[in-house]
UniProtKB/TrEMBL annotation:
It comes from the Bacteria. InterPro entries: Metal_Hydrolase, Phosphotriesterase. It comes from Streptomyces telluris. The modification N6-carboxylysine is found at residue 128. GO terms for molecular function: hydrolase activity; zinc ion binding. Zn(2+) 2 binds at residues 128, 161, 190. Its cofactor is a divalent metal cation. PANTHER family: PHOSPHOTRIESTERASE-RELATED (PTHR10819), PHOSPHOTRIESTERASE-RELATED PROTEIN (PTHR10819:SF3). Zn(2+) 1 binds at residues 23, 25, 128, 247. This is Phosphotriesterase.
Length: 309
């Protein structure tokens, strides 16, 4: 059948994914963000419809295990809106979990990741992991090792939260150098938060996908650097490695709350990209690149599943 995108409603040929927000959140919770949870189904649906009305066709949700990803609700929203939605398995930094949860899950992470990717009525379509600030601690290495094992079992892409955009080369050294994950199965997130062109060019040259996200009130200083980063990558022949996403992490950032939200990618950013770098570039970044980044020739299948969680 060839590479397919594993959405919450089933596998879709990669060429049918369409215009994609490559990094976002419809649901999210963390003890680090008290009172800022994304847990309202109606609000999530309104945001998804607003993105569809702006021309969007797909959203990749990077919310991993234990952070309120709500796969059953994702499936219901995808069915109601006609949007392609991709869910994540994986695990974030240790600070986002209660100690009890970490102690219970860490020793069997690879097994849990593979199960999420291959079993149940609502399957994940990527593995989310996270680095630290300018480095990788023991937890990050443990989770990335489990993610690499799950990748080798399934073919799924690994999406990486880079803390403040740092540590990209350390991540590639571990995942690709030590653990044997092909670089083109790795998506490095938040690179706009550390706009170092040397790191960007090297990561792209090694074959990884580079995800730039926002805008964000917390990281708004990166917005004006975005075009410099994209122009540098495109000029060096790496346009095929670029992904763009909204990374909406709080209710206040949603479009219904007067934030930029998901629609900004297509109403604000895409016209500016088209004017600056051309329609072919914009289409590549929003359509062709996500289809390649998140597609897989899935190597593990299971006929029985577990409860959605």
């Amino acid at each position: 059948m060839g590479p397919v995108i594993r959405t919450v409603l089933g596998d879709v040929p990669a060429e049918e994914l369409g215009v994609c927000d490559a990094h976002d959140h419809l649901f999210l919770r963390s003890p680090r963000l008290p009172g800022q949870e994304l847990d309202d189904v109606e609000a999530a649906g309104a945001e998804l419809r607003a993105f569809r009305e702006a021309g969007g066709q797909a959203v990749v949700q990077w919310t991993p295990r234990g952070m309120g990803r709500r796969r059953a609700d994702l499936a219901a929203l995808a069915s109601a809106t006609g949007m392609h939605v991709v869910a994540a398995t994986g695990m974030h930094q240790a600070v986002h979990y209660e100690r009890e949860r970490l102690d219970r899950d860490r020793d069997r992470l690879a097994e849990l990741f593979v199960r999420d990717l291959t079993q149940g009525p609502v399957r994940a379509g990527l593995i989310k992991v996270a680095g630290g600030f300018h480095g990788l601690d023991g937890h990050a290495r443990h989770v990335m090792t489990a993610a690499a094992r799950a990748h080798h079992a399934t073919g799924a892409a690994i999406a990486v939260h880079l803390e403040l955009g740092t540590g990209a080369l350390d991540v590639l050294d571990l995942l690709c150098g030590e653990l044997g994950v092909p670089a083109d199965r790795v998506v490095l997130g938040h690179l706009n938060r550390s706009p170092d062109p040397r790191v960007h060019l090297r990561a792209a040259g090694e074959g990884a996908f580079l995800a730039f996200d926002g805008p964000s009130r917390a990281h708004h200083a990166t917005d004006w650097r975005l075009f410099d980063a994209l122009t540098a990558l495109a000029g060096a022949g790496h346009a095929e490695r670029i992904l763009l996403g909204g990374d909406t992490t709080t209710a206040a950032a949603r479009s219904a709350a007067d934030g930029p939200g998901m629609p900004y990618l297509l109403r604000g950013l895409r016209p500016a990209l088209t004017a600056e770098l051309g329609e072919d570039f914009a289409r590549q970044v929003f359509v062709a690149n996500p289809a390649r980044a998140f597609a897989a020739e899935w190597r593990t299948e299971a006929s029985t599943g577990n409860a959605v969680g």
